[in-house]
Design a protein that fits this description.
This protein is mainly beta. It has 1 helix and 3 strands. A 3-stranded antiparallel sheet has the order 1-2-3. The chain is elongated and about 40 Å long.
């Protein structure tokens, strides 16, 4: 289950993207949010993991 919330960030000459994904914890069963700032071309790989 992925919550696709993607925001564009621009720092200098690099263009970065912040991706947030909702993951179910195997221990408690509660949902947690995993955030990462990365290159826009790698967002789909991050969300599909």
């Amino acid at each position: 289950m992925a919550k696709k919330a993607v925001a564009s960030l621009q720092t200098g000459s690099k263009r970065l993207t912040k991706a947030i994904k909702m993951v179910k914890s195997p221990k408690t069963g509660a949902y947690i949010f995993v955030e990462a700032i990365m290159d826009p071309t790698k967002v789909n790989d991050f969300l599909n993991k």
